[in-house]
Amino acid sequence: MNTTISISTEIRDKIKEFGHKGETYEVILERLYDSAKERQLYDLLMDENDCITLKEAKKKLAK
């Protein structure tokens, strides 16, 4: 089932910049979505907040 979304011409043109000749907006948006999900996962896994170094962890284990 298809649906229609309303976007400005400006946004449509920006989305088009990510496409290749002959691609549909669905294909372009799916690729952008997949890329965003990968980046989100990377950011989550690489977040250093509340982390300690291996050296600090070894010191805690040694106590």
Care to describe what's here?
It is a single chain. The chain is built from three helices and no strands. It is mainly α. The chain has one domain. The protein is rod-shaped, with a radius of gyration of 21 Å.
Short description:
The chain has 63 residues and is mainly α. It is built from 3 helices and no strands.
Q: Sketch the major β-sheet.
A: none
Order of helices and strands: HHH
Structural class by helix and strand composition: mainly alpha
In percent, how much strand structure appears in the residues?
under 5%
- Overall number of strands: 0
Shape: rod-shaped
What is the residue-averaged pLDDT? 93
How many H/I helical runs? 3
Q: Provide the helix percentage.
A: 55-70%
| Parts with pLDDT < 50 across at least 5 consecutive residues | none
Summed up, the domain count is 1
- Terminal Cα separation, in Å? 61 Å
Radius of gyration: 21 Å
Descriptors:
mainly alpha, 63 residues
Itemize the secondary structure elements and their pairings.
Blueprint: H1 9-16, H2 25-45, H3 54-62
